[in-house]
């Protein structure tokens, strides 16, 4: 999908009515349109990066994902401090719904409970990758 027709690029350019929870020079955050948990936010880079497969072991990718995670953690701690568990991660192709990198930030419980399956790792098949695991994967060698 070209960046010009990408719904997340449109949101990042403020071309939609989506209410932003956070905005800075690198990322924006907003509520998921189809929430799977008590609180479910998405943090996306303003730059069009299709999927986790487009991230590499380089400092700029590591810094971006770290920033995305920090923004998501800050928002959920602010908006759902009573949550007993949080989950942060990315769907990997072919399980991603939109080809624009996006971090799922979930304050659990899942609603309904069966949605937990959608946010589980499928081992070598991919599925959902926790943000910390992805950060280890793309951590540059110093």
From TrEMBL:
A motif (Histidine triad motif) lies at residues 100-104. Keywords: Hydrolase, Nucleotide-binding. SUPFAM superfamilies: HIT-like. Residues 7-119 form the HIT domain. The active site is at 104 (tele-amp-histidine intermediate). One of its GO terms (molecular function) is adenylylsulfatase activity. Signal peptide: none annotated. It holds the Pfam family DcpS_C. PROSITE patterns: HIT_2. This is HIT domain-containing protein.
